[in-house]
# Entry
Amino acid sequence: MEQLRSLRFTDWGSVESDLQNLLKGYQFQGKWNLAQTALHLNDWMQFPMNGFPKIILPMRVMFAVIRNTAGKSMLMRILSDGFKAGNPTFPATVYEASEAVDKLLQTIIRFRNYQGEIHPSPLFGHLSYATAEQLQLAHFSHHLRFLVPTQRSED
# Structure
């Protein structure tokens, strides 16, 4: 596998710019194309606003143990160093779809303007909006680094 992009998003403008560049053309180095990546990120961005999906009892127990023991240190490590490649993800948020970036951009706008309560994460518990936003940006950085734009916009 070729070298992954080094991404560290700190604001939504840079995410939106990167998505627009990827729409002009890209190569992917992972398992997911742009549509699959965008729809996965879209789902995970909506969960803090809409609520997280119910997970099976054994996973709820495991997440509760992690949340009450190593959860805070895991969250701090992700916010500091980003997500590690190869970690499993919730299968219902992996897509084989095509119309995704516009949907994701609309969800980014909704998230940026969101004033409601952030629903507790099954793994990290209650998060402030600022921490949920940092976690989202880290998640975007993790996934979008596998997609390499073939063109750059002249911003």
The longest strand covers residues 26-28. The mean pLDDT is 89. Residues 34-50 form the longest helix (17 residues).
